[in-house]
Amino acid sequence: MTKPKKLKINTLIEVYEDPANLIKQDFNLLVAAKEALVKSYAPYSGFQVAAAAILEDGTVISGANQENAAYPMCLCAEQVCLAAVRSVQPQGKIVAMAITVHNAQNPATQPAAPCGACRQVLSETEDRQQSPVKIIFAGESGEVYVVASAKSLLPLSFNQSFL
Ligand code: THU
After folding, report:
1. Ligand 1, atom 3: nearest CA belongs to which residue?
2. How far is the CA of 65 from the centre of ligand 1 (A)?
3. Does residue 47 line the site of ligand 1, with CB under 6 A?
4. Cβ–ligand 1 contact at 145 (below 6 Å)
5. How far apart are CA 34 and CA 102, in angstroms?
6. Which positions ≥6 away from 37 have C-beta within 8 Å?
7. Global pTM?
8. Which end of the chain has less Cβ packing within 10 Å, N or C?
């Protein structure tokens, strides 16, 4: 019997014990994301999420999750942020996005990674702009994770080449 070929998927994550050790642009973007938590509307889950994106020209645009009583209509922070970017700069290239959370019931002591749907949208954003989006994600305290591309968080991603 022939053994199947094996594919190994590697994800490289930079782990910062202290946000102060991030490069200045990433640190500032994380601060912008933390500041954007006030834009969150999360009366149902109490789970506030905010994202801040920096574009090639240095513009920083942020967004936060927006919930509805009809739960499936809830909008994730990352997608609100991306929609805000596209409203202001339809052709702008996003260089990086910082994501953070606040949950009074259960404070996050580790990085809260974007959900699967947001990973897909971020991955397709990279395809569209033909350049990677660095993702910086953090909880309320603890380590900060940095990946060089959203695709690092979504191996075997679906894309337009299948259509
Ligand atoms: N949420 C985000 O904003 N981003 C994610 O990547 C995961 C989940 C929001 C949606 C909802 O308002 C709340 O977090 C709880 O799921």
Report:
1. 76
2. 6
3. yes
4. no
5. 9
6. 48, 49, 50, 64, 100, 101, 102
7. 0.97
8. N
What's the one-letter identity of residue 50? Answer: A
Please count the other Cβ atoms lying within 10 Å of the Cβ belonging to residue 116: 10
Ramachandran region of residue 130, left (φ > 0), alpha (ψ -120 to 50) or beta?
Answer: left
Question: Which amino acid residue places its CA nearest to atom 2 of ligand 1?
Answer: 76
Q: Domains in the chain and their CATH numbers?
A: 22-154 (3.40.140.10)
Ligand 1 midpoint to CA 113 (Å): 10
> What would the pLDDT profile of 92-130 be if each residue is shown by its tens digit?
999 999 999 999 999 999 999 999 999 999 999 999 999
33-90 pLDDT, tens digit per residue, is: 999 999 999 999 999 999 999 999 999 999 999 999 999 999 999 999 999 999 999 9
108 alpha carbon – ligand 1 mean position (Å): 13
Q: How far apart are CA 52 and CA 16, in angstroms?
A: 19
The answer to whether the CB of 114 is under 6 A from ligand 1 is: yes
Return the residue whose CA atom lies nearest to atom 10 of ligand 1: 76
